[in-house]
Specification:
mainly alpha
């Protein structure tokens, strides 16, 4: 297990396998939604992140039944990701902590300027991090 997953599991208080999937889904979401150049630099800078994205990028993309369809109709985005993370059994507090911890690790490895560019390029994300 890599540093990012270990830190998220420990600091958020969730099981390591759940942390791994949740972080992979979050990074995959960012890869799809954020500024291409900035998110690529950020993911490459975090040890183990490219592997998490490769493993979980398809998780939660599309689908979601009626609620997922409604979310997509209203832009999906951060709200759709939240719904997908809730389906893993995470509550809003854990999702916010997950986002903050992931972004903190990203800042350590990729730098604040790159991470700010990623966060600012995804509508609604800044309120969670």
């Amino acid at each position: 297990m890599n540093e990012l997953v270990s830190r998220v599991a420990d600091n958020v208080g969730i099981a390591p396998d759940t942390a791994e999937k949740a972080v992979g889904m979050m990074l995959g979401f960012l890869q799809r939604e954020a500024d291409d150049g900035a998110v690529a630099r950020m993911i490459e800078a975090i040890p183990g992140a490219p592997e998490l994205v490769a493993k979980f990028n398809g998780e939660g993309a599309g689908g979601g039944g009626l609620l997922g369809g409604l979310m997509s109709a209203f832009g999906g985005g951060v709200m759709a990701l939240g719904q997908q993370l809730m389906s893993l059994g995470l509550g809003m507090g854990e999702i916010t902590a997950l986002a903050r911890e992931t972004i903190a690790v990203a800042r350590e490895h990729a730098g604040s300027e790159t991470v700010d560019e990623v966060v600012n390029s995804v509508p609604g994300l800044s309120q969670f991090v």
